[in-house]
Automatic annotation (TrEMBL), chains A, B:
<dbReference type="InterPro" id="IPR038987">
    <property type="entry name" value="MoeA-like"/>
</dbReference>
<keyword id="KW-0808">Transferase</keyword>
<dbReference type="InterPro" id="IPR036425">
    <property type="entry name" value="MoaB/Mog-like_dom_sf"/>
</dbReference>
<dbReference type="InterPro" id="IPR001453">
    <property type="entry name" value="MoaB/Mog_dom"/>
</dbReference>
<keyword id="KW-0501">Molybdenum cofactor biosynthesis</keyword>
<keyword id="KW-0460">Magnesium</keyword>
<dbReference type="Pfam" id="PF03453">
    <property type="entry name" value="MoeA_N"/>
</dbReference>
<dbReference type="InterPro" id="IPR036688">
    <property type="entry name" value="MoeA_C_domain_IV_sf"/>
</dbReference>
<protein>
    <recommendedName>
        <fullName>Molybdopterin molybdenumtransferase</fullName>
        <ecNumber>2.10.1.1</ecNumber>
    </recommendedName>
</protein>
<feature type="domain" description="MoaB/Mog">
    <location>
        <begin position="186"/>
        <end position="326"/>
    </location>
</feature>
<comment type="similarity">
    <text>Belongs to the MoeA family.</text>
</comment>
<dbReference type="Pfam" id="PF03454">
    <property type="entry name" value="MoeA_C"/>
</dbReference>
<keyword id="KW-0500">Molybdenum</keyword>
<comment type="function">
    <text>Catalyzes the insertion of molybdate into adenylated molybdopterin with the concomitant release of AMP.</text>
</comment>
<keyword id="KW-0479">Metal-binding</keyword>
<comment type="pathway">
    <text>Cofactor biosynthesis; molybdopterin biosynthesis.</text>
</comment>
<dbReference type="InterPro" id="IPR005111">
    <property type="entry name" value="MoeA_C_domain_IV"/>
</dbReference>
Amino acid sequence: MPRSVANHRQAVVELLAGAATIKGNRRVPLLDALGKPLAVDVHAPLSLPPFANSQMDGFAVRSQDIPDDGGQLRVAAPVPAGATPTALKAGYAAPIMTGAMIPEGADAVVPIEKASPGTFPDPTARDAVVDLPAVAPGTYVRNTGSDIRKGALALAAGTLLGPAQLGLLAALGLATVEVPEPLRVLLVTTGDEVVEPGEELTPGKIFDSNGTLLEASMIQAGLDVVRTGISDDDPAELLAVLDSFTREADHPVDVIVTTGGVSKGAYEVVRQAMAGQPVDFLPVAMQPGGPQGLGTFNGVPFLGFPGNPVSCLVSFEMFLRPALSEVMGTPAPRLVQKVHLAEPLSSPDGKHQVRRGTVAGDGILRMEGGAGSHLVHALARANALVQIPGDVTELTAGAEVEVWML
Amino acid sequence: MPRSVANHRQAVVELLAGAATIKGNRRVPLLDALGKPLAVDVHAPLSLPPFANSQMDGFAVRSQDIPDDGGQLRVAAPVPAGATPTALKAGYAAPIMTGAMIPEGADAVVPIEKASPGTFPDPTARDAVVDLPAVAPGTYVRNTGSDIRKGALALAAGTLLGPAQLGLLAALGLATVEVPEPLRVLLVTTGDEVVEPGEELTPGKIFDSNGTLLEASMIQAGLDVVRTGISDDDPAELLAVLDSFTREADHPVDVIVTTGGVSKGAYEVVRQAMAGQPVDFLPVAMQPGGPQGLGTFNGVPFLGFPGNPVSCLVSFEMFLRPALSEVMGTPAPRLVQKVHLAEPLSSPDGKHQVRRGTVAGDGILRMEGGAGSHLVHALARANALVQIPGDVTELTAGAEVEVWML
């Protein structure tokens, strides 16, 4: 009986878990960590803000110096941002800029717009005065540690590092950050009929799209990709390639992914090359992408995807990408949405079908192309993978379906 | 009167439009185009599939050779993928692999599972026969051009190039693709109080988070970022830096973005450095991120963002990022969702407020931190920007609000 999609995904998670543990972490400059997960908890080495500062351009005051109906204060020396001000004397108001340190003694800021006159006096003027309204203690003061206190958890391990998270680490004074060492994956496309894009296409041949499609997917998922050329349908040649990146390599790859050669035809090169290795070739109850290989080759985790481009993308999205999310903390899982079918749909009984479609702004799903796994042009128009469970065979127009947004 | 958010965004679009037109396009290997928009329409240089081929491992047959209740055919030489088969003679069935060319004369494929015996005969065997059920013409045949016909539009200019789109270009035999030349942006953070992460923090100083936060945002948006060190509050020094990347440069930058020094304080270095240049410093009816600079410096488009990190991120997301989407075709616009507030919210009258929040799987929005534009730790927890229009001052728990997903 074919294996369920969930069971096969779990098998891929278990296969990759060991490799991820062994890889460990590395410390990189902040911007090199963009899009990667944080490897370890980061606690704040200092409070933010590091000192009480002004939220406005205005006057720092002792709030008790101003009567309820307002009052006049003498103007002290201005406090620019970046300076350490002297203590504020009673009866004085210090011109202060946004972000500048609140002087000792001051407990509130009156914005310049509420002052009279409403502009700062010339810093060289003596005996300047300013009329200010009453102000409650703490007004427009950003207190030390009001965003985060020294020692508190700033970011938890596993947090995806985007602009805001890297901005926080920078604000905490950190110039580098620990991220997981990426997995190195060997990507081998196979097939006598396949030639590289840009080469000459002779009769019976097709251009390799799997290599580009999967390498791009893997790069987006944070993998280091090692490409070989296309392997033809000679198992000995494929074996030699795989040996050179595993048993014979100083730094073996962490994962092997092949395309093609896993079904039940007469020339299944990947099946033949894996003879004697602990690898299963099994049907998963999914369409496309049903035939899958899974195991280890010379001890290195191995995934054998089918040979059609749509099958490759579906295999990656349904198995490898979610397993990487779980095991490595990256990439972020696909956004799952419930949308409504524009047209009726039928699906084979007993197989989880993954169709391609476009979700428009109105939440209506239009299908792109039929079920055929060779329809790469239709795939390129789609923005969603449509998930149709194995026990669903007919859906009417307007029916709700789950999609994974690409 | 402050300018509306929409009007200021339009002003940024108009400012950048000229720069984008001048830059032109460049041709890059497929994988270097990942995440970038296609610059020109691409028409298919060949049909996909390039030739009629089998969708299954099975037997290629002339459908009229098999009676309605099935029949026996002689087994011809097998057709592996990548080969050019000889024509199929009447009364014969040719073992054929998935993706292999349909022999001349054949018009259907019977899957191996439906054949008896259900395995392929030894290719060296003579006089083998196979029992096959009747099959309709065209069954399991992928016709030439059924995905896309030679000459048809494969991808339209502006299409974002992800794995599927690059896979299609590869399938069409293309090894390179035209993408827009990226804009080069000079990013200058200013302030006497700001020091680089990793340096020593003396009293009154803070670490620069704006540089990291904005550079990361710009990288994700497809810009080439040129960083200077932090510029202090001396206008002459800032002027010298800006001159060196514009008037005095062999290849001037395409855009200048500064942070800080744009509001109404006494030490506004960016305002001072822009004296004599056609630059407006104006209030936008938005919070945070209200004070904005916009114009040209030595003819180069200039955007002056405020100095707080949250204001910087909001300025980027509300103005520069959408303008790039419109003018350059990349990045993709933020996903907009309607969600429901977990708690009541108040907002100042007359200002479009951009708060930070987290949307959970249940579509409920929880706020992260208050309105303060210095709350970078709260920002780092958020996954959404909450859009509260200027005429909304009170929202109850459960009220629907628009969010932009980060």
